[in-house]
Amino acid sequence: MTNAEFKMGLEQRTKHFAIDVLNWLDSLPDRRVVSAAAYQLAKSGTSIGANYREANKAESKDDFSHKIGIVEKETNETVFWFEVLLESRLLSDEQKVAGQPLHSEAVELLKLFSSISRSSRSR
Predict the structure, then answer these.
(1) Cβ(2)–Cβ(43) below 8 Å
(2) Which residues of the chain fall below pLDDT 70?
(3) How many CB atoms lie within 10 A of CB 49?
């Protein structure tokens, strides 16, 4: 797999993740406290892909390192908000089960972007 193919695949993966997060959030109860956490998750979960695309258009290696660091932070925040929702009493067991694969994907993306971030800083 070439570097260009890897980037394109990861852009698609993060876009699909954003769509899946929004679809899952749309299924949650319409309660003020759930909405507050869901709003935060919607923002961070969708910004992963947007910021990754921005990083791929970086103007320099330093610019890429900075932008990929933002992607890593947004992914970490996404993992946090999933943990808050999935560990709370706010969701049904069914909703938690439906959200678990998304949480797992967020954790995998965090590992991936942390690795990319470390590599970009060491160059």
Answers:
(1) no
(2) 123
(3) 22
Cβ contact 55:64 at 8 Å? yes
Q: How far apart are CA 106 and CA 17, in angstroms?
A: 8
User: 């876009």: which residue's tokens?
Assistant: 15
3-state secondary structure at position 2: coil
Radius of gyration of the chain (CA): 15
For 92-123, what is each residue's pLDDT tens digit? 999 999 999 999 999 999 999 999 999 998 86
Q: In the chain, count of helices (H) and strands (E)?
A: 4, 0
The pTM score is 0.95
Whole-number Å distance between alpha carbons of 33 and 74 = 21
